[in-house]
Amino acid sequence: MPGINRKFDRESHGLGDARPCLREGGLKGSSGRVRERKGTIVFVAWRELRFARGRFLLIGAVVALITLLVGFLSGLTGGLAAQNISSVLQLPGDRLVLQQPENSDPSYATSSLDKNTVTAWEQAAGVESVTPIGIVQSRASASGTDDPTGVALYGLPQHASGTQSNPLFDLAPAHDDEVGVSSGAADDLGVETGDTISITGTDFTVSVVGDDLWYSHTPVVVLTPEAWSEASKRVGGTGEATVLAVTGNADWEAVGAQTGTVAETPLASLTALEAFRSEIGSLGLMIAMLFGISALVVGAFFTVWTMQRASDIAVLKALGATTGSLVRDSLGQASIVLVAGIGVGLAAVIGLGTLAGQALPFIISPLTTLAPAVVMAVLGLAGAAFALRSVTKADPLTALGSNR
Questions:
Q1: Are 62 and 345 in contact (CB under 8 A)?
Q2: Which strand (E) or helix (H) includes residue 403?
Q3: Is the N end or the C end of the chain the one with fewer CB atoms within 10 Å?
Q4: Within a 13 Å sphere around the CA of 91, how many CA atoms are in the beta-carbon half?
């Protein structure tokens, strides 16, 4: 018939001569169904990867670029988040207690808990231990220099009851004239153990240099509770604790209502950091939009591509190809393009991210590389699957010339 005997265009469809393809698998039986010999690719979608290299290289390059953008944003988001919350995540306790303002949300920047509040929590039923912790932002400078550096001052007891050793509490000094500094603060100030730094006009000796801990983009310096209280008053604070680290199994809502406070889990309390909430919200929205764009781009490409070869798919159906085999073949084609593009983009993220990490707060981890890559692959396949409507609805009569 004319519809079957028509020649396929090598350049536009990448099919070449259909007869060698049929000879590979052969026609078996009177039904005319095309049977696949094991290990032999029969249908056109796989052959198109070789004959239409330019088109697939183009979509692969687009996928790689989107992966690069998503990976960089994820790494930057992780780095900025670490510079916001790395010290807060080291606070001990089952719940962190902050002051609950009447007309606003709790905030680390404005929270102030007096001694009566601390006592009420210590005496509450089910509470095992309460550790008052002070946090305030100030400036510090190395002895003999006039170049101050922004730092976050923590007031911590050296041995907090009910707490285990962690990077934050390991910085707690033993004496009021000593401080523990994080590695970021030590680098910014240019100091090491035994050096002297000035905070709010008072000199302190560096007793220990610890891990890289941050609070709201400022490196951490730890003082004793007494020294911190005095420093807080000198910068306009109340000198009272900012947050309570509470361990136990109390009625958190009832005690909070009685004391004008709110008790949150450490992770939930992160929303009380304004900088963290705004940064993660905006960057997270950008990442989500890029994920959506990736699904849209891949889906649009395969939709147009599938529509262009609708008549060829109808020919294969007329020759006996099943809808399921055509769908598997098309999704396999999309998988190859996605894996190749995402792989190239992922390699670029790791390579360029390593260089960027020397100047920017950039984190390379499975959460910022592999997780976005998996999401990209899933969304890309979802977009390709949407394009398969032309495959599932292709009418074999089209190949027989019924629409001509």
A1: no
A2: none
A3: C
A4: 35
